[in-house]
Amino acid sequence: MDRIPVSDQQPTAPVPSPPQSTTMRESLATPWAPLQFATYRSFWIAGLVSNLGTWMHETGAQWLMTSLDGSPQMVAAVRTVMTIPVFVLALPAGVWADRIDRRRWLLGTQTILTITAVGMTVLAATELMTPTVLLLLTAAMGIGMVLNQPAWQSMTPELVPPALIPAAVSIGSFSFNLARTVGPALAGFLIAQFDVWVAFALNACSFLAVIAVLYRWQPSPHRASVPGTSFASELQQGLATAMAVVEVRHTLIRLFCFSLPASVLWSLLALVATEKLEFAERGFGLSLALVGSGAVAGAWVITYLRARFSSEQILLTVQCVYGTLCVMVGVSDSRFLLLPVLILIGCCWMSVMTTLNATAQVFLPRHIRARGMAAYLMAFALGTAVGSVVWGWVARWTSLDGAYLLAGFSMLLVAALSRQLPLGDLRRPREQ
User: CATH code at 316?
Assistant: First the structure.
């Protein structure tokens, strides 16, 4: 692959110019302001389509496994094989995305995902799918997603001006959570009306939409690796450079500390649906929809809040509310109380995640941005994995209520201590 010679001066992405009639404060206060830039708008639409396909695929894969091998272990394994690659490949994926032209890298990962989805479509349609093959192809899908994610997240600052990066991250999260809310329901309808292969086929088509946008994208020149620099050296140097940026280092620490107690929501939500809400199996889907709708709302309102309050004020308030809501789940069995609590906790979750994600993208130097976002994914995955194990253990040896109470008080403690790790002001981002 052709390399662009390295100069002493770091190349910077051309910054789009917003319409002259839009002031900076108006841009920051408008959630949809990034969509006025045609390139970002194209990627946002393609990302929404792709996210819908991804959630339809996951729903279809889990449903197909229930018909091939309905044991709880095999059904749970579908999700497991999609998440394991995060721990193994996230950091290497960040290095590769920084070493190689980002557009070409994304075209490659999207092609892998498309081929995998097409293969699953054909095997499902011809009834040749087996449990082992399903897990292998699902693992391949997970690998493709992990290879894609650091590069995908790191390109946001190349599509909008620095002041609009937080808003771009917010509406990107809005897209993801809208798809998570709609995708499973749409997949269920299509599977019932046609067959599971339709969900896989639409997922393959969704990747083609992303590929089409990537082909039209003309990014700024890529900073190549220094000739002779080893992979391990670039990995070490990239992480060292990212950790040397105070705002990034604090973001990673705070993300890990937040996800530890916050993971109680996802790890024990099924038990809340069945034991507290008494919704039985279908109640889990409803609970996910409530949390997802709250997350959509959180991605919507966070831009308004960010225009008026600092990141520290937002995070302190939202984390305290999150902890209080967890305590409420631990002390109440009332549906009338818990249903709105699930919506609010989803809103709080997304408000924290978009703020931390935007901070990482704003303050990471461009030439190591993919590696920095890979470290971000690792911190989140590690915190969530460790937290899920901890809260599962606590619930087993005490009770479901005890796990939520301990997680809630832990979140309040994290909120108080996190103020010692300032993040910087997203309302006045510095140029990279």
Answer: 1.20.1250.20
